[in-house]
Design a protein that fits this description.
Helix content: over 70%
Strand content: under 5%
Number of helices: 10
Number of domains: 1
Radius of gyration: 19 Å
Shape: flat
Number of strands: 0
């Protein structure tokens, strides 16, 4: 069973790597952006090596307010929202005065991750274009993401797109059931990480990989906490 302290530390390391990747995108940006994300990078290095962890997390929370103000919200959509969710839940857990409150704060993160997959699948399955595979075909045909030209031919394979669409939808909808067993959860998280890596390779959605993976220790910890024998 993964202990709370071990799960928190693993989350800190993964979140630090996610923030470092994000900050690296601005090395050659404007001076203002470089300075803003240079601060995040410096704090992330401290978090990575466990230097004044709770205080560094608090500083990152304060810094996130400046980033939100600079871009008038989470400028990269879902991945940045997940990054902030991980940061705030992790920070709350580190600063809570009792073990019970620490567990509540960290457990909230795990519940939100489970819901993120389930709701994503729910939204897709009520959409007839996703059920037919057309939505995925449109992604390959018309997407502005840097899909390789050779992959655009996949839009002409409706049967394959139908299978892929239903595989994604069913996985997302059934994801909460994996929480009932530790082995199933580990398998589900490996598949989920593979899904995010594939999206990064195909569509350039590289931030989703680290931010979602950074939330996985909370799931592993909560599963062991709720179902210690499962």
């Amino acid at each position: 069973m993964l202990t709370l302290d071990a799960a928190l530390r693993a989350t800190e390391i993964l979140l630090a790597l996610a923030f470092l990747q994000q900050s690296a995108e601005y090395i050659f940006g404007s001076r203002a952006a470089w300075m803003l994300f240079g601060v995040r990078a410096a704090l992330s290095i401290g978090l990575l090596f466990g230097v004044y962890g709770a205080w560094v997390l608090l500083a990152l929370c304060v810094h996130s307010i400046f980033v939100l103000h600079r871009f008038q919200g989470p400028y990269n959509g879902g991945s940045d929202r997940m990054g902030l969710l991980v940061l705030y839940c992790l920070s709350l857990s580190r600063w809570m005065p009792t073990a019970a409150l620490q567990e509540v704060a960290f457990g909230y993160l795990a519940v939100q991750v489970i819901l993120s997959y389930f709701i994503s699948g729910q939204v897709k399955i009520i959409n007839p274009e996703w059920r037919s595979g057309r939505a995925l075909g449109d992604v390959f045909s018309f997407s502005v993401y840097p899909v390789a030209l050779s992959l655009r031919a996949l839009a002409l394979r409706p049967r394959l797109l139908w299978i892929a669409s239903w595989s994604v939808m069913l996985f997302e909808l059934l994801f909460p059931l994996s929480f009932l067993n530790a082995g199933l959860l580990i398998l589900a998280l490996i598949l989920a990480a593979g899904f995010h890596i594939a999206n990064a390779c195909l569509f350039g959605l590289n931030r989703f990989v680290w931010f979602w993976v950074a939330s996985y220790p909370s799931l592993l910890w909560l599963q062991g906490r709720v179902f210690p024998g499962g």
